[in-house]
Amino acid sequence: MDDLSTPLWPMKRIIILLLALMPIVASAQEFNYDNQKITWKKVYQSELTLDDIYKCIITSNNFYDVEQLEGCIVAKTKPIDYKPEDYGFRWGNSNTLLLNGAVGPVALRIEVKEGRYRVIASDMMVTDITPGGMTPMGTKTRLEDVAFRRGVPNSMMTDQFAPVFRKYIERLVSFTK
Fold this sequence. Notes:
Structural class: alpha+beta
């Protein structure tokens, strides 16, 4: 057992802390905050072609306004009811906006190159699906309106919305043949 008075002990604590924070930092790097706009980007390694991905999108029935362009696909995701347990949260520690709504729609651009595809998500929204709530049913709230209160991405964005939207998008764009 190490002697707690040795100089190595603080270094071990720092290394353990850094290792514990790596997944949080990695997921935060997928989100970009630029000029009051939020985008999410991720590159997937895959042997799927543009046509393969297009077929996956069409058959999944999770997208609308799908267009196949030169080297890319643009589409919007259909909103999916928010269930806290599906995203690693409990009902009591979820944001009210999410609890009254569905995650989505999200605008996607999928750029396909040999051996990989990049997904760029923007225009992320939460759709109110609760009748008789504070906002009319069907109201869409832009993620930027929630995330940039007081001018900078707040802890609500990084702690709740970022993990939910990351998981939502990854579920929809992890294509397989």
